[in-house]
Amino acid sequence: MNEIKIWGATLALLLVGAYLSYTKKEEAGTTEAVTIVDQKKDALQEIVLYAKTQTVAVSLREADGQKYGWFEVEVRKRKRSFAGNEETDKLIEGFAPFKALRSLGKDLAGKEFEETKLQKPERRLVLNYGGSQKEFEIGGRTSGARDHYLKAKGGNEVYLVASKILGDLEYPEGKYMQRKLRTAKLDQVEKVSLVAGGKTKVALQRNKAGGKDAFWANEATPDEKNETLGNYLDKLDKLTATDYLDDAKAIEGAATLLEATWFGEEDKNLGTVKLLKKGDGKDAEYFASSTATHLPVKISRFTTEQLEKDLGTIMAP
What is the 3-state secondary structure (H, E, C) of 81-138? Predict the structure, then answer.
């Protein structure tokens, strides 16, 4: 009987201890998403991530009334820059407002704090909102989900930030580089003007809203499907940037092979691309300048050589 009483008392103490531990954890942190910086997307001007081996800066620029992201990545004093693609919008939304998966509280200590690796952080995050700067220290990552531990510089509240928000920012080229030479969708295009060798050829897109029934026609014969012209424009459309040039002067002296301009309704300019060639034979290099990439870019030699070879046929009357 005494043993039953002892076990009963022990069980009661364990239940009380468990309840107190649970409520203490609930008081220390939160299990719901927490807003770290409550700012609107339009207020965000720059994101800078300082890591051990590189610095990644994302700023917002504007050209022809359109805002776009601009990346500058510096590794061992070598800086490379490139325009951001449509995915950059989602990146920016992750920081305005800037949210954490949850707060881990303000009183982490001992082994709990050591696990965050915030005692000697190797990465920093700086966010500029309309002249107001917020700086954060980034610690280690959780196992499994690979989420990031983070706290404000000088603060003591620790947050858990989703892996995708900071992870993709560390290696931005793969996901955020603008590689397409034009940004307008194909179903927005009414016509394309091709200029090469002093000649101009205008291609019209017919039944553009018809999906598979859409086709390209020579402006001179607007109702006749021109497969040769269509195949050429398809190759041109699939041409992408392989890399950005550090300096626009790299294309000085290059000859323009082709200038293509896409137009939408009411002759709205949807973007222009110039294909450029520098050198001859095996030493030839191919580049493009584009309203989508903003800087000159390197392009595929194999595809561009084909486009150059077919120009005579395409530009013929």
Answer: EEEECCCHHHHHHCECCEEECEEEECCCCHHHHHHHCCCCCCEEEEEEECCEEEEEEE
Model pTM score: 0.83
Structural domain span for residue 165: 34-176
Asked if 119 contacts 130 with a C-beta cutoff of 8 angstroms, the reply is no
Mean pLDDT for back-to-back runs of 10 residues, the chain (317 residues): 47 41 45 91 95 94 87 92 95 95 92 93 95 94 94 96 91 94 92 97 91 92 96 96 87 95 96 95 93 94 96 94
Count: domains in the chain: 2
Burial of 64 (0-12, 13-18, 19+ CB in 10 A): exposed
User: Do 212 and 119 reside in the same domain of the chain?
Assistant: no
Tokens of 315: 């530009």
Instruction: For the chain, give the longest Cα–Cα distance.
Output: 108
Per the CB < 8 A criterion, the answer to whether 303 and 239 are in contact is yes
